[in-house]
Every structure is written in C-alpha cells, then in structure tokens.
Amino acid sequence: MTNPVAAKEAKRKPAVYIVDDDDGMRRALTILMTTVGYQPLAFSRPSEFLAKYDPNQASCLVLDVRMPEMSGLELQQQLNRNGSMLPVILITGHGDIPMAVQAMKDGAFDFLQKPFRDQDLIDRINAALKQDAQNRESVERLADLSQRAESLTPREREVMGHVVDGKANKVIAIDLGLSERTVEIHRANVMEKMGARSVAHLVKMHLTLGGDASAGA
C-alpha cells in the first residue's frame, strides 16, 4: 500500500527526466540523480517521455541529442509546440554540437559535450531547476493577476485604463461622463481588487497583463 505522505513528498521533490537510448548512460544518470537527492524518471524513447511527462511537476530534462526514434532537437521542437517551459539540458557527442546549438536557439537551457564530469551536469541541473522554479512563479503570478483583473467590473476596467495612463480623477470624470466622487470610488475598488500598493504598482500589473499604459482604456 502506497504511503500518502511519502507520495506527496515525492511529488514535491524536483524530478529530473532522463531521455537516452543508451542503457548504460541512462542507468548511470539515474544512479547519479538518486545520489544527489533528485527524483530520476528515465526513458529510452522520447515517445515514452511525452506519454509520462507531467507539466505540473517541478522538473528539468536531460536529453540525448542523437536517438533513432526522434532526435533531441525534434523533441525540443515538439515541447515548444506544446507550449512547454521545461528546461532542457542536452547531452551531445562532438559531431552533435551543431544540433545542440540549434536546440539552444529553439529554447533549450544548456548542453554538455561527452564525456562530461558528474559535477558539471549536477551544476547545470541545479541551474535548470532554479530556472524552472522562476518560470512557475511567473506563471502563477500572471494567473493571479489575471484572476484579479477578471474580478473588475467593465467600468472599473475602464477607469483602470485611464488611471494607468496617468490621468487625474477630474479628467477621468470628464472623459467618462461621471462625477469625480464616482471615479474615486471606482479607482479605490480597482486598487483594492488588484492589490496595488500605488499607481506605479498598478501600471506594472497592467503591463504584465499585456496592457499598454499609454493606450488609456
């Protein structure tokens, strides 16, 4: 019977996906990851990885460039098409460097040329997992901001557009045909719902959501 506490702990532990068709390399990387306290999830084929990959799991991918079913470059491109932000570390032979460079241009995190030191790989994995944590934090922050923005009424969104454009309440009132007091109330509601500490903070939120501070509403 699975221990629910242990299962939850394993879920929190960052995963290191390993995709390599070389059995010896796959085993060696699995042992190394276990030794340094990561959760290794190893696959011999990219299709197996794609079937098991959990985007909700904090993780990175250690990927061999040259494989018979699908190259590392092709898998990287597939991840891009899926909208994945998974940091990818490529393992390359000397002749695979041009492919690795192309994968880097396509968004891969880093690459290591064989043979490499264990510590070099560990250092890159640590950096990749840090990047993954930052990516997830950014996504969560944007989702939170979007949820706050969706709580605004149409009129509050309109007022917010004018506020971030730097207009005074009196000017906004004239532009929208409202009383200055009504604008003040809408403005206070916007600041409270968005959790903005200042107008500058509200402008930053607006820009993060894809708004244009110079475009008014």
Concise account of the structure shown:
By secondary structure, the chain is α/β, with parallel strands linked by helices.
Instruction: Supply the CATH superfamily name of the largest domain.
Output: Response regulator
Our Rg estimate from Cα atoms comes to: 24 Å
| Oligomeric description of these chains | single chain
How much β-strand is present in the residues?
Answer: 5-15%
Most strands sheet: 5 strands, parallel
What level of helicity do the residues show? Answer: 55-70%
- Number of separate helices: 10
User: In angstroms, what separates the terminal alpha carbons?
Assistant: 57 Å
What are the low-pLDDT stretches, counting only 5+ consecutive residues below 50?
Answer: 1-7, 212-217
CATH class of the largest domain: Alpha Beta
CATH topology-level fold name of the largest domain: Rossmann fold
How many strands in all?
5
* Strand order of the biggest β-sheet: 2-1-3-4-5
Supply the CATH architecture of the largest domain: 3-Layer(aba) Sandwich
Q: What is the mean pLDDT? A: 87
Number of domains: 2
Topology as H/E string? HEHEHEHEHEHHHHH
Backbone structural class: alpha/beta
Describe the global form: elongated
Task: Explain the overall architecture.
This protein has helices spanning 4-12, 23-35, 46-52, 72-81, 97-105, 118-150, 154-164, 169-176, 180-194, 199-208; strands at residues 15-19, 39-43, 59-64, 88-92, 110-113. Residues 1-7 and 212-217 have low confidence and may be disordered. The protein is α/β, with parallel strands linked by helices and 217 residues long.
